[in-house]
Specification:
Blueprint (H helix, E strand, L loop, with lengths): L10 H9 L1 H15 L1 H4 L3 H23 L6 H12 L4 H5 L2 H18 L9 H47 L3 H10 L8 E7 L5 H15 L2 E7 L2 E7 L4 H8 L9 E2 L9 H14 L10 E2 L4 H6 L3 H18 L3 H10 L4 H8 L3 H15 L6 H16 L4
Parallel strand pairs: 4-5
Antiparallel strand pairs: 1-3, 1-4, 2-3
Helix pairs in contact: 1-4, 2-4, 2-7, 4-5, 4-8, 5-8, 7-8, 8-9, 8-12, 14-18, 15-16, 15-17, 16-17
Length: about 400
């Protein structure tokens, strides 16, 4: 496609604009200080960066006008040079909205002062050229911020992957805190970890879906993809299963397991370990809900060799029943041996069936596991077995 051009301006006009380029940039910065309160609050070094950009902008305008105001690839190159004058840190210090305000102020100053330099009959052409150049500058600013956003996004994704990896490895709380601080993590207690299969595809897109779901649920999240697994750390998870449900659509097919809630990110390694071990053991329970709590998978986790699960069953179930006394363990043994028939268990124990019923209710109160429920009964029988295999521990 042919380039779109305008007739070059008179040499006298270009010389006058070039001679007053420094004054134009100074006037633009003065107008910024006058009209933009946030600009006055900037540190001196950042205001000097803006001055450099303003000066580069006026120089680029003169170069562009001298070339005949070409609207093509060369225009993009010239406009991009404007922002090359400032450090990349400027894009982090000043938002895109603020940059648009700076461009507008600069163009307003140019529109007010530059026409006075135009030779007779060139005022309208000069104003139109300035407006067209301002459009190119705006596009160039958008490109700068887009590149900065892509760079920050890639860096944040790497940091999040490192943080999740540190959680899974059980690194020290100092390592977790430093990486979380770099990501701007707001430690909103309680914290839980959710593990499931990654839906596949671009990792950035996968994590974007997680963040979108987290915003809707008002959760603070950090996510990472490890192999075929998607691991999400969620803050503000007062109900871990409800939190996992809010994020469930971000995961791929298969079980989604949520670890127990912990007070802070420093202790999230415990939740991550439970969720990860639960994810590995979940296929052993085909009828498991999704999402499912890692604590609901204690029997499968224990059979898969998870020492934390064995410890919980031994201490929180077998140990609690042992401390309670009152023949609860003996009653459970008789009840299971009788195939869940109260009367048969009562005959074996030489007690009334109501006594057996009362003791089994006590078991449920103490352990939160009902002997009358098939799933809970499985966990109770396994806890008794583990407790007897290692009673000293």
């Amino acid at each position: 496609m042919a380039e779109s051009t305008t007739n070059p301006l008179a040499p006298g006009t270009l010389r006058r604009i070039e001679r007053h380029a420094g004054a134009l940039a100074t006037s633009a910065v003065a107008r910024m200080e006058e009209t933009l309160p946030w600009f006055r609050a900037l540190p001196a070094d950042q205001r000097s960066w803006v001055m450099l950009v303003a000066q580069a902008g006026v120089r680029s305008l003169v170069e562009w006008l001298s070339s005949g105001a070409t609207v093509a690839a060369s225009t993009q190159e010239i406009s991009d040079e404007v922002f090359a004058a400032a450090p990349r840190a400027l894009a982090r210090a000043i938002t895109l909205t603020q940059t648009v305000q700076l461009i507008k102020v600069t163009i307003d100053v140019a529109e007010a002062e530059v026409p006075g330099f135009a030779e007779e009959g060139e005022t309208d052409a000069l104003l139109q050229a300035i407006l067209r150049f301002s459009r190119e500058i705006a596009f160039s600013a958008a490109r700068v911020y887009a590149r900065a956003a892509e760079s920050r996004g890639a860096w944040d994704a790497r940091l999040q992957a490192l943080l999740v990896d540190a959680l899974l490895r059980g690194d020290s709380s100092d390592v977790l805190a430093s990486r979380a601080a770099a990501l701007g993590w707001a430690d909103a207690p309680p914290v839980t970890v959710v593990v499931g299969r990654s839906p596949g595809g671009d990792i950035t897109a996968v994590l974007h879906a997680v963040y979108r779901a987290a915003r809707r649920a008002r959760l603070e999240v950090i996510g990472g993809v490890h192999g075929d697994r998607l691991v999400v750390v969620a803050g503000g998870a007062t109900d871990p299963v409800a939190t996992a449900s809010a994020l469930a659509d971000s995961f791929g097919a298969g079980p989604v397991v949520v670890g127990p809630a912990v007070p802070s990110l420093d202790q999230a390694t415990e939740s991550a370990r439970a969720a990860l071990n639960g994810f590995r053991a979940a296929p052993a329970w085909p009828g498991a809900p999704s999402p499912v709590s890692a604590d609901d998978l204690l029997p499968e986790r224990a059979l898969a060799g998870d020492q934390d699960a064995r410890r919980k069953l031994r201490q929180e179930v077998y140990g609690a029943l042992t401390r309670a006394g009152s023949g609860l363990i003996e009653t459970l043994d008789a009840f299971f041996a009788a195939g869940g028939v109260l009367e048969s268990a009562a005959r074996e124990l030489y007690v009334h069936p109501n006594t057996v019923r009362y003791r089994l209710r006590r078991v449920a109160e103490i352990t939160a596991l009902s002997p009358f429920d098939g799933r809970d009964g499985f966990a109770l029988r396994l806890a008794l077995t583990i407790g007897r295999l290692d009673p000293a521990t």
